Amino acid sequence: MELADPEFFVSGPIDLVLGSQFFYDFHLLDGGRIQICKLLSPLPIFVNTVFGWVAAGESEWSTRKATVSCHVAIAEPLDKIIEKFWAIEELSEKPLRSQEEKDCEQHFQSTFTRDESGRYIVQYPKRNGFHDKIGDSKGAALRRFRQLEKRLERDSDLRDHYNEFLQEYLAMGHMQLIGEMEDTLDEGRTTYYLPHHPVFKESSSTTKVRVVFDGSAKTTTNHSLNDTLLTGPVIQDDLLDIMIRFRKHAVALVADVAKMYRQVRIHPEDASLQRILWRFDQAEPIKVYELQTATYGLAPSSFLATRVLKQLAIDAGDKYEYAGPAVKKDFYMDDFLSGAESISKAKRLRSEVQSLMTEGGFDLRKWSSNQPEVLADLPSTALEEQSTLHFDAETKVKTLGVVWETGTDQLCVEIRATEYDDQWTKRKIFSEIAQLYDPLGIVSPVIAWAKIRMQHLWLVNIDWDDPIPREIESKWNDFHSQLPLLKQYKVPRYIFSSEATTVQFHVFCDASEVGYGACIYARSASKEGKAQIQLIAAKSRVAPIKRLSLPRLELCAALLGAKLYTRVSAALGMEGNPCWFWSDSTVTLHWIAAPPNTWQTFVGNRTSEIQLLTHGHPWNHVKGTDNPADHVSRGMLPADFIVDILWRNGPGWLADEVDKWPKHVHPLLPNEDILERKKTVLVVQSTSQENPLFERYSSFGRLVRITAYLRRFITRCRSKHHAYEAFLSTVELQEAKQTLVKVVQQEVFPEELIQLKQKRPIPSKSPLKNRYPFLDENGIIRVGGRLNFSNETYQTKHPMALPNKHLLSRIIAAHFHSQCFHSGPRMTLATMRREFWPVRGKTLANYPNLKDSFPRHALSLVDHSQSPVSTTVALYT
Question: Which of 282, 294, 683, 788 could disulfide-pair with 261, CB 3.0 to 4.6 Å?
Fold first, then answer.
């Protein structure tokens, strides 16, 4: 045989990858297959192809040990993540720290040190069994490195940037050469080789290409370095809190820390966990380097870097009046967002923060301010070149993001709308909506519109890549084409008037059938009494798929407003300032005004929390036309939103004196049925009586015919044009039987019917428990069993369930007995069970009016339930 690859047992580079569709379309198989047999030794199978004979299967010459792996995806399904958009949730609260997070904090406090220059030295927090879980990572890192080199060969510019980045790493002492890869020995130390790759950030004004290290690469033990390290808690405030506080300062200051992670040194014992493979020239051998600083890409690096900032404020912040609190609270990762009341205080803040950060080895750069005088004495290299600053929670590109224009001191939104020439799909639309980023909610009505349409599209229940319905596509195209209009929408960053003497908060809440939301405004008045109204923040939620009543949604909106006020007032440090809450829901206002135990559970729980959060602040009624939260609950298209005055400034009367506001009285009391007042229930137990129809007719055939005529009469009354034959049809008689059984089942098995309709297990004490009951298409309980696998008819395999002591069951038993009298009781019972199943009765002895009809010895056989017929039927069920 002429082999296509004579050395098939030796690993080599892959020249070409073909998809399976080409494999069969191009007829690569020429036919022919040879299996070489050899005892106790695996040999490959040889298959003839257009390239020659190829080997497949196992080989005794293979040097690689085969491994079997099973990967289980434990990530939350995408469907569940999407459904969180319309879950009944409010503003997230900081969860309590887990034991691992507490351990991580304790580890930091007991291991961190400082060198002579004041720079912090930390150790990575490790999980139990760390050394046993870390296997060999050098081989995987080498394969990734060779793939990276091939990529860099194709892009010389990328190669130059990569070399430049790592050369700076080496020059600054952030990376240390260990030796050539072939000569490097671990010397008994636990080592980990980090694969690395480039990332691009076009919005960066400094480094466009950065090297990112992959701490999640698996070792030979199927554990990565990140798997064996503790992540640590989030110790900084959320971006929402920091941005709200940022709007409090008349003079704003913004900067970021240069190479923040790389200013935190790693203890020498942990440096061997940060080894990389690299060579600046391909003519050189591959060399091993160890990173000496906290590394982006490792699980605890973010915690360690931010924790060092906090520790710096603890250790040296007491020496500075302004810098200590600012460093503790005004950093979001490496971004510093703060400010002061005046230019002089802002200058002092900037100077103190610079001095404090320098003590820890950190350098602040890219300074910006709305007042250039604050930065007048800084060198040009320390200033931000751009006039706009982006506030992104992640490094991913957003379709819509918040931007601060330093010159005009305004906040606006940046639009990076994409265009699609082909058909919109659910996947593309959801991707666009997920990129709408507005933490403050200044364009919340627009985003609410998108999320509401997102839910509508979800309910259509189409596949991810299927074309969307035309009606939804038309509305989405209008929305998408109007998105660029939001570039015109700008709001002042500073939310108070200059030299304000009083500051009040006003929270508006509203709900509709599709969503609910809340917004909070600041009303500040100057010495002259002139009031200024500014939107601070807003939040919106889509109504849940499982529909709630409108009053309940209004209550959810009120709770969202109460939590929004608590969040905003705490972020601003103004919890004691007066606040007015406004809602256009009469029911909600009555709910909140009464003791929570007055109402049912859903209402009582939420009113209790609202009263706790808003204690001491009045709730008032506002007209729906004066409620800006109405826009959040319904959503708005961008074209309508940018010209709306109510959202921007609140209702017009809010700028007037208090006596011109809506009166502090509640409207008329709503209907008692809507209020969901807790009711006192009196339970009266009565003995149910059987239907008198069963007592009137003792013949089963006659009972069925009369029921059929009654059904025909009712149908005739409903539809006079319906024609009938002179005699009852088989279908009518069968439907009459089912009607009789259904009436009895509703009397005797009400709980079982409810549970089966809801697809829930029936009560454990039910006589149907072990009969495999289910509801058929007519809502009748039928029983199952092993007869399901037989070739019998449907009603034989699944007879209708009847109570054994009910009068109808006795009538049916007498009917079948009259037909099978000469065949004995066993045949009677078997015949009856072909259509009806008497529950709690395996024998005819349950029917006392029939005992005299059978010989005594036959009853004895059936009573003991040992006859072949009754035993077999019992097994089937």
Answer: 294
Q: What is the pLDDT of residue 111?
A: 94
CB atoms within 10 A of CB 261: 20
Contacts of 504 (CB under 8 A, 6+ apart): 522, 523, 524, 577, 578, 579, 580
Question: Comparing 22-36, 743-757, 775-789, which segment has the lowest mean pLDDT?
Answer: 22-36
C-alpha distances in Å from residue 835, one per residue of 108, 700, 810, 812, 829: 74, 14, 14, 10, 11
Mean pLDDT estimate for the chain: 81
CA pair distance 294, 278, nearest whole angstrom: 19
Token duo for residue 679: 């009711």
> Phi/psi of residue 794, each to 5°?
-60, -45
**Banded model confidence at residue 388, pLDDT cuts 50, 70, 90:** low
CB neighbour list of residue 9: distance below 8 Å, 6 or more residues apart: 55, 59, 61, 62, 63
d(CA 663, CA 629): 20
> H or E element: which one contains 105?
helix 99-111
In this predicted structure, which of 323-332, 458-467, 526-535, 855-864 has the lowest mean pLDDT?
855-864
For 19, 153, 436, 506, 532, the CA distances from 578, given in Å and listed in that order, are: 68, 65, 33, 9, 16
d(CA 815, CA 809): 10
Section 283-287 average pLDDT = 91
Angle value at C-alpha 39, between 35 and 40, nearest 5 degrees: 115
**In the chain, what is the straight-line distance between the N-terminal and C-terminal CA atoms, in Å?**
64
Non-local (6+) Cβ contacts of 297 within 8 A are: 194, 212, 213, 214, 215, 216
Decide: 207 and 317 in contact? Cβ < 8 Å: no
Among candidate residues 759, 520, 711, 508, the one with its CA nearest the CA of residue 629: 508
For residues 321 and 356, give the distance between their C-alpha atoms in angstroms, rounded to a whole number: 11
- Rounded-to-integer distance, Cα 434 and Cα 477, Å: 17
Residue 349 and residue 323 in contact, taking contact as beta carbons nearer than 8 Å: yes
Q: Is the pLDDT of residue 112 over 90?
A: yes
Separation between Cα atoms, residue 310 and residue 214, nearest integer Å: 27
* DSSP conformation class of 761: P
Look at the chain and count its residues.
877
CA-to-CA distance for 829 and 842, rounded, in angstroms?
9
Q: Which pLDDT tens digit goes with each residue over 441-456?
A: 999 999 999 999 998 8
User: How many CB atoms neighbour CB 435 within 10 A?
Assistant: 16
Q: Give the confidence band of 12 by pLDDT, cuts at 50, 70, 90.
A: confident
In the chain, pLDDT over 90 holds for what percent of residues? 40
Helices and strands: H and E segment counts in the chain: 29, 28
Closest by Cα among 780, 709, 797, 799 to 742: 780
Would the CA dihedral through 226, 150, 204, 419 be positive or negative?
negative
Q: How far apart are CA 197 and CA 746, in angstroms?
A: 68
Q: Which residue type sits at 15? A: D
Residues 198/213, Cβ–Cβ less than 8 Å: no
pLDDT at 801: 85
Asked whether 815 and 701 are in contact (CB, 8 A), the reply is yes
Of 146, 382, 124, 155, residue with least CA distance to 253: 382
Average pLDDT estimate for 316-338: 91
User: Looking at the predicted structure, is the pLDDT value of residue 684 above 80?
Assistant: no
pLDDT value of residue 794: 79
Q: How far is CA 530 from CA 490, 616, 645, 656, in A?
A: 22, 26, 19, 9
**Would you call 655 exposed, middle or buried from its count of C-beta atoms within 10 A (0-12, 13-18, 19+)?**
middle
Q: What integer pLDDT is reported at residue 224 of this predicted model?
A: 93
